[in-house]
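A note on notation is needed here, since sequence and fold are reported together in a single record. The reader may check this reading against the record printed directly beneath this paragraph.
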Amino acid sequence: MASNGCGITDNGLSLCTNIEELDVNNNSKVTTCEPFAKFLKKLSALGSCGITDTGLQLCTNIEQLDSSYNVKITTCEPFALTIKELIAEGLCGITDDELQSCANIKNLSVHDNNKITTCEPFAKFIKIVYACNHSITCGMTDAGLRLCTNIEELYAFNNEKITTCAPFAKSLKYLSAQDRCGIHDGALRTCINIEILYADSNEKITTCKPFAKSLKYLTAGSSCGICDSGLRLCIRIEHLEIRDNGKITTCAPFAKSLKKLFADDCMQTDGLKLCNNNMVLHATDTTKLYHYWTNRSGVVA
């Protein structure tokens, strides 16, 4: 690692011909990877790192690149055939046009990047997509995912432009659809294999019925639309977070499988009656739920 504040410069790396992994985040003194171009496989060059397109032009074997917030790196062309993971978040210089030849990307992270709007060039191979809105609107939309039939993990927190999971319904196992994400019940009706769902503050998701048999991990806090009826068929949930969601009042359907529960007074004590005492309760120690569970000799964290 030779990141921010490090004294290493191009001269210090000039004789290093076998580097396979390099982390020079925010290091403006490193501008080229030429000495070890043939061997470099993993590069982290985000922020104010000095590496530019010129510094990467001989790197033909990069498999993983993080150029988030680095406007000086604008192309993946030299390593288009080998790159499998691209992290290009925020004000990154890479755009859709520069990914046209990148046919083998499996993992793409474009949080807050409004210049990358499609996964079409690598639609057959992409399995993980990070397309959340944190401070800047992410450019990824339904249209950009329409040919992606093998996505297993989708992170669409606060992204109102992603409203459907239909193209990859059978492969999807992990979904982050919190807050103002556009995904709703209708978008999930054919998603039968979801194991992990983050739906905090998403009022449009009210049921887990389509994937009731596979769901193991659920966060449905605050103003999430999920209520007891939406969970009545879920018998395999192991981890549940429902803070500030008064609509979920019982753990009965999945009492035997539940291992961790994050809740305060949003759930009544009756909701825990069927749970095993080795289930770990995370709750404020002043709540009725906490006292009920400790009096029952249940495990608290």
